[in-house]
Write a structure and sequence with these properties.
The protein is an alpha+beta fold. Helices cover 48% and strands 16% of the residues. It starts with a helix and ends with a helix.
């Protein structure tokens, strides 16, 4: 699967909610608890600015390719 084409509409840096949508698949979202665990365990690297996470789209694609 070509994730670069699939996620072409997303910016290079995405929000927590965008990440949940990207990982959840068509018309679904990944659960909040699972998504937070991926970030807190640094399975998917992220930067937290004040209360919001910012995640590189490339890191989400790397995660998907590994799993």
């Amino acid at each position: 699967m070509n994730y670069n084409e699939l996620f072409a509409d997303y910016p290079d840096i995405v929000s927590f909610e965008d990440m949940r949508t990207m990982l959840g698949g068509r018309n679904k979202k990944l659960g909040r608890t699972t998504a937070y665990k991926l970030l807190q365990t640094k399975t998917i690297p992220a930067i937290k600015i004040t209360r919001e996470y910012r995640i590189q789209k490339a890191d989400i694609i790397k995660f998907l390719l590994k799993n």
